[in-house]
């Protein structure tokens, strides 16, 4: 922690010069200066437990020591930093590790497309590729889906606030279907999809692809069942459409396995990855695609930062450290249980509240965005970084680093429960 | 340089697992392992002079020692790596440096929007912002413009190969106008723009913005005159449209000044920056916007990697090192002269060839993509990394690091001239 | 009937010179030369009972004698034929009759917009007007809806064959919802609409309008229940959207009342009318709009043939003759019963067949387009003009003139039943 | 003329019940009750010379006696009125006449597609057909072009007022190019088109078709030169695009020949016709298409009123009466001369005014919409129906029936000149 505070920023620079589009800094109104593992430290020397993890970009925690060592070594020896999409040793090493520890063990023959280093770009590439590969233009996406805010990705994103930012109608070439559970229990929404696809006059044009998250992170931790996902994939293939799984937020172990769909008996044609892929929080994204759909010509979809070699270096370490045997994955099941237990305790405090999500991507729908917001704000005051999600921000969402030590994890949950208690107590007093 | 080659990648991994969309690696078919300044070294220990500079992403050369030192220090002390868009010391320090050395001296009141760390994302944000700010949807862009390949940016991009990759018609909400010089000498294309804007039945809807590069990098080094740029900006403002200058490739000193438009007497409403912004080749992008058009609400345009703190650290060094006084800028004028002289020599060798571009963003139109390609390929064999541009790849383009020592610069030009000689000689022999 | 056949066309002219887009003439392969009431006569002197009625454009039969007399009188006295949208006596007289006998008794304050004389044009005007009036772009339409094939109307039309004709993706600015009954019994599809409208992240942008037919004519005689229609209209108004009822095919008495929605307790904001409006089969269309949404400026939506005075003359007669008292409407209920009885007899002959539709817009879903087509073809051989509808042409549809005398009506039904018997007998023989 | 005024409309019905979209009735504020040839009579018994001719829909004048006789005979004998697109004797007779007198003598192998009976619908069909036939989506249209206001046609229409009526951005899938003369003398706008088409990075996607009027009626009587038209057609075919000539307003003799392009040495792939096609002002439209591009399947583009048999009857008479020999066409040249002379006299009265147009589609650009409007309003007071056109309504446009007797023609021109004199005199007085 820095003792000399003279170098820490005066807060006014952000208000003075940063666009009003800034957001997280509003809820977490301090200046962070360092971080390790599951803890962040601000310029005042206060530390916070991180239950946000860069929106699932820091699944292995902040500044993992092994990745850090490899990265410093790479920089020190003047290893390639920026390589456009040229071959570099770091890229080759990453690809080999990814092939050996991720693709091969899962029987996946996918090619790896390095896109611009954002999830949105991976989604843009996926959507374009599916359209080019099938010669169709329509892409089916789902209620409450989030896929990014560039124009292509935004057309598939459900959130009205984000859509409104475009300043023009963004609906073109995308058909919106209800996600699993959208119509409540007893209504299998895949039947509506099936009816539309099977009806030549439904008004739904033959789809190039069906695009979905298995757990909708921004949409409110809606977790699709394996049955529904399987059914949707079968429908896609039956009707000549590709399956695109957007694993940007749910991938890299977040749900308990490397890919979020591993235990669902499907093989997506295209998979998008970003966020925790580099392991260290460095910008990196991939679009995985089965060889028969790898239809872009050289540079047809291009971009300057597709060769972020620093990210390749840390990503290689992340894969080898966490995914070369089953130890890490095994630990996730245990932690998920701890999380479920803690969140159930939270839910029990609040009338009508209930758990949502899957694996280490769970939260509690507390019924209103106002209440969820108050709880998170109070938790921050008490040293916990945590956020809401859902269409009305009504879900208190836990996205802790997957590497969070159990003690820290329990401590974070405890802060969260205390914060909830305090907020609920205040409400009681106010109501009296 | 690594002596132990056992760690260098087997080339086959790229063919085996990387998407066919890969491109630069095809022309520069080796594996790079380290780089400093204007030189890159491959796994065989061969070194190359870099006249590509990551497509203008490495204006300060590879792995600048001062940035490197600051970056290693930051990493070593567990400084923030990934910060979403939270306040961090590194971000504050960057903003202060940017304000002090870039914005203030140029009298610019622009706000700084950190977008996803790619030029395309900065352009997407700019286009959305202009539409939201004006309540209009049409954006005017120009023949041969390149702004990225995500759907919003792609609609403004001229290149048919890239447009084709979308798998659907991309023309919506953009009107295409002829760039300066497009119709040859004696035809002022701004007059067509003026006529269309002034005619209620022209079929051009009232524009939200006019979007252009002052020098079209990918489009073939077409440099707009100051008069034309001024006229276009005046027309925009007269008709209630914003001016967006896409300075992703031409900015950061490439044309001889920090912004490419500094000597044109204009103040763009919105400016996009990326590529060399971080100084070190790390992913980072900005959209600068005048306060009155800073209309996005919190997170309305969002993204995971808007807080790449490593990039902030190096970007701060880049600005303080190169732009806190006029020394660096003064040196660019000298180098541009060297470049012009060298390229003129090249042009003189080839019938009909002529110089294009401005500052350190110049090249030679050699009349055909085939010839330009052969010259670049031969140059690579001789140790020079250099690329073509233009609608038919007919321009041999020099984008050397701005920091290239004069001796290296001359050496690179000399390789280029030799390569051209050899290719032309072969053509003569073949013709006989 | 003409005795002199020398003037009847050689069939070859149609094949020689008419576009392959021609259609009905393929199924009814003869040349018609005269028609009165519910009977058509061809060049061979053969007469046919008409159970198609110009797709509900001839609700009052062919060449009604009173309209005919008024029209001949108008023509003979050199009454205005083409009047752009100028005031003419014929237009004034029509408007007065329409006000007195249609609008006033139903408590409707709607303004009358004369659009280009086709249903598609009335729909185009309605969609534009709703968008302009609300400042929103999205329009909700339904599975199996048919609204025309010009680009605006086509975007709301469900039929994939028609959509395919556009040669470009037509889905923009329209969200498709399931019509009443689309998901089978026990599933109230309005609940899905309600959920989407009430969810800020559903991906459905706030709608300008909800557009539907109360009975989907081309879509297969799907009749919405009054409860569903009422619910949809309430949702529209609750969410700031206009209600557009497309009454082009179901209006003018076809369902038993002048407007198809009269007994549903709703007041649509916009209503489109065409087909039987002129009464005589002459091209004429209207868009009715409540005054507060009548937002087009002079000629903002224009067209050359908005003043078809011949049509005004016959339309006035149609309204005064059939709608100035309740006699005609009363007769429709009786005829609908005859129709239901006859069609039930047909349905009983075929496994799984069932009745669809409402009023004098009923048919039988016989389970396959092939069978329905065979029955209609056989009926034509036996002197009955009748067509199929539905996504797979699986519905035998009766659209007889509403004025068909009961005897003729029964005769037509009898031909239909005989045709079905013959076809089914053949199938039995073939199966043995 | 009716003596009994009790049946003439009270003006209030129009204000009370007609949509505010009504337009011509505002400038010509009376109620017309009959018309013959070039004269219209209102309810007050006042007669007007018609120099508007239903916007070129009444090229043969009002209620031509031969067409009238044929129509009354057809109606009286219960000839088919509404025939969907079935074969009828009237349709066959029309087709034969059209083949014999129009297509064959001009060496045209085009197929005849009967579209919905409006020019907009013919244009919609043409655009869809070109897209389907070529598999491309982009259509090139021109500044100041007018093609209708349904969404497909509107996208090709230049007029901003009409475009605004859509309530959503209409620019998709159309590229706008400058019409002949748009950039003034000395600038051949076809060169811009040529450059864009020949440049793979121009941002203009490969066009399905180039769509234009040879004389832009609504756009201000801009007449393209034969050279320009020929060049544009050659470019289209060179680049795999179809040529669509929109002859809705300029066709049927208006420019001096049946088609407006007959003397230009081109054969359009697709031609749209409407307005004067039926001869009598009855709604009728056609899309002519060369057989190889006749790609619609049965009913793929459909519509209820494609079989307006009354229009077929009068259209047949029109063709046989006026186009079976050269007499009528010869008379047009003479009348055009009279028109030019008269309009030159008008132009000479006004500083800077000049003639525009071609054949019997000429007018005078008087420099301002206000002045043009005043002249037309004054002319109406003096018994002449005449309108303005152009982006700012600055052109006084003469569209007299082609059959106008020379005496009536001169009388109309004389009223126009007097009206201009009176208006100019008033302006002089006001200026003093």
UniProtKB/TrEMBL annotation, chains A, B, C, D:
GO BP of this protein: ectoine biosynthetic process
EC number, UniProt record: 2.6.1.76
Molecular function GO labels: diaminobutyrate-2-oxoglutarate transaminase activity; diaminobutyrate-pyruvate transaminase activity; pyridoxal phosphate binding
Broad class of enzyme this protein falls into: transferase
Entry-linked Pfam families: Aminotran_3 (PF00202)
Classification via PROSITE patterns: AA_TRANSFER_CLASS_3
Protein's UniProt keywords contain Transferase: yes
Keywords: Aminotransferase, Pyridoxal phosphate, Transferase
Signal peptide: none
The protein's required cofactors: pyridoxal 5'-phosphate
Pathways involved: Amine and polyamine biosynthesis; ectoine biosynthesis; L-ectoine from L-aspartate 4-semialdehyde: step 1/3
Alphabetized SUPFAM superfamilies for the sequence: PLP-dependent transferases
CDD domains registered for this protein in UniProt: OAT_like
Keyword Transferase: yes
Family, similarity comment: Belongs to the class-III pyridoxal-phosphate-dependent aminotransferase family.
NCBIfam families: dat, ectoine_ectB, PRK09264.1
Protein name (Swiss-Prot/TrEMBL): Diaminobutyrate--2-oxoglutarate transaminase
Source organism: Tropicibacter naphthalenivorans
Lineage, highest ranks first: Bacteria, Pseudomonadati, Pseudomonadota, Alphaproteobacteria, Rhodobacterales
């Amino acid at each position: 922690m820095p003792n000399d505070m003279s170098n820490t920023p005066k807060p006014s620079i952000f208000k003075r010069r940063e666009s009003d589009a800034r957001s997280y800094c509003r809820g977490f109104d301090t200046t962070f200066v360092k971080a390790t593992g599951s803890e962040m430290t601000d310029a005042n020397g206060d530390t916070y437990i991180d239950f946000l993890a860069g929106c699932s970009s820091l699944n292995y925690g902040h500044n993992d020591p092994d990745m850090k060592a490899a990265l410093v070594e790479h920089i020190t020896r003047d290893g390639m930093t920026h390589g456009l999409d040229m071959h570099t040793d770091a890229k080759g090493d990453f690809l080999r590790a990814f092939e050996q520890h991720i693709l091969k063990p899962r029987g996946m023959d996918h090619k790896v497309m390095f896109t611009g280093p954002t999830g949105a770009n991976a989604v843009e590439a996926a959507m374009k590729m599916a359209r080019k590969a099938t010669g169709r233009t329509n892409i089916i996406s789902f209620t409450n889906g989030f896929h990014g805010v560039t124009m292509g990705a935004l057309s598939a994103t459900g959130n009205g606030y984000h859509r409104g930012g475009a300043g023009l109608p963004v609906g073109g070439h995308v058909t919106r279907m209800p996600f699993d559970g959208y119509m409540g229990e007893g209504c299998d929404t895949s039947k509506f999809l099936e009816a539309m696809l099977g009806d030549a006059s439904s008004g739904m044009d033959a789809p190039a692809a069906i695009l979905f998250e298995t757990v909708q992170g921004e949409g409110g931790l809606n977790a699709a069942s394996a049955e529904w996902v399987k059914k949707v994939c079968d429908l896609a293939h039956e009707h000549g459409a590709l399956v695109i799984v957007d694993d940007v937020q749910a991938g890299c172990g977040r749900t308990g396995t490397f890919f979020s769909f591993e235990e669902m008996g499907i093989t997506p044609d295209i998979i998008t990855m970003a966020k925790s892929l580099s392991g260290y929080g460095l910008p990196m994204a991939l679009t995985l695609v089965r060889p028969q759909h790898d239809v872009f010509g050289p540079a047809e979809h291009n971009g300057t930062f597709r060769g972020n070699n620093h990210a390749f270096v840390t990503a290689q370490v992340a894969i080898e450290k966490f995914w070369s045997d089953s130890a890490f994955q095994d630990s996730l099941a245990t932690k998920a249980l701890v999380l479920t237990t803690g969140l159930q305790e939270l839910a029990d405090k609040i009338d009508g509240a209930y758990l949502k999500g899957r694996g280490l991507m769970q939260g509690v729908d507390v019924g209103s965005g106002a209440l969820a917001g108050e709880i998170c704000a109070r938790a921050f005051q008490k040293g916990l970084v945590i956020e809401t999600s859902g269409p009305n921000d009504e879900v208190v969402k836990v996205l802790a680093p997957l590497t969070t030590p159990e003690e820290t994890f329990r401590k974070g949950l405890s802060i969260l429960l205390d914060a909830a208690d305090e907020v609920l107590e205040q409400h009681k007093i106010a109501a009296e």
